[in-house]
Design goal:
By secondary structure, the chain is mainly α. The protein contains six helices and no strands.
């Protein structure tokens, strides 16, 4: 299959689905996470950080379910044998593991800090973004692995999904980190929320645009699949 208008249409639909998924799913997850963190700060000892890890991981269900459903709405047209249940299970598994691993550093840092009154030294903004990109590169693999296991049964060459997600989230994660930092510096709650939501929309679009290229190639590689029709 060549890069026809139909493949471009598929790519645009995929970008839109991922942008909307991160806006809604990650936005709600961040909202729940904010409520969780503000209520656990006064819990003494190890209970607070450990409870934070558990609750933040559980809240990732919101993002995982939203992403899975909106992605499947697009995928069902090109991979009709991929069931919604299979994609939902795969996406939830990857997202929950990613949230668990992603919440560990901050929670463990709070746990080991104990009652120390030492002031933490903030890393330089550039270093934070580099660390975010590395984190996204690793978590992209975590997110994609269960999805790859679902895709490999319906399309040849599905292993392409792994590096595509690694690159996609290496690009998307710094946008999230920068947005959170910008939100904390905002002068109003409305400004902070608006800035964060726009960044989540942008993150989903960037991530979708990158692994959407892999999706187009996977669809093109199916010998028994015609070009996807425009919406």
């Amino acid at each position: 299959m060549t890069h026809s208008p139909s493949s471009f249409s598929l790519w645009l639909r995929w970008i839109g689905a991922n942008a909307l998924a991160e806006l809604i799913g990650l936005g709600l997850t961040f909202g729940v996470g904010f409520l969780i963190l503000t209520r656990l700060t006064d819990i003494p000892g190890a209970a607070g950080p450990l409870l934070t890890i558990f609750l933040m991981t559980a809240s990732g269900t919101i993002e995982g379910a939203t992403v899975a459903i909106l992605q499947w709405v697009v995928l069902r047209r090109v991979f009709p044998t991929l069931t919604r249940a299979a994609w939902l299970r795969a996406t939830l598994a990857g997202v929950l593991i990613a949230w668990f691993l992603g919440s560990l550093p901050a929670a463990l840092s709070d746990l080991t800090a104990g009652d120390s009154q030492a002031t933490a030294v903030e890393p330089a903004p550039g270093l934070v973004l580099i660390m975010a990109a590395l984190m996204g590169f690793f978590l992209g693999l975590v997110l994609a692995f269960p999805q790859w296991r679902a895709l490999k049964h319906v399309v040849p060459g599905a292993a392409l999904w792994l590096p595509a997600n690694m690159v996609a989230w290496a690009a998307g994660m710094p946008v999230i980190f920068a947005a959170v930092d910008r939100a904390f510096q905002a002068r109003s709650t409305i400004g902070a929320v608006t800035s964060l939501l726009l960044a989540l929309l942008l993150t989903g679009a960037v991530v979708g645009a990158i692994h959407g290229v892999a999706l187009i190639r996977l669809v093109a590689g199916r010998p028994d699949t015609p070009a996807p029709s425009p919406a």
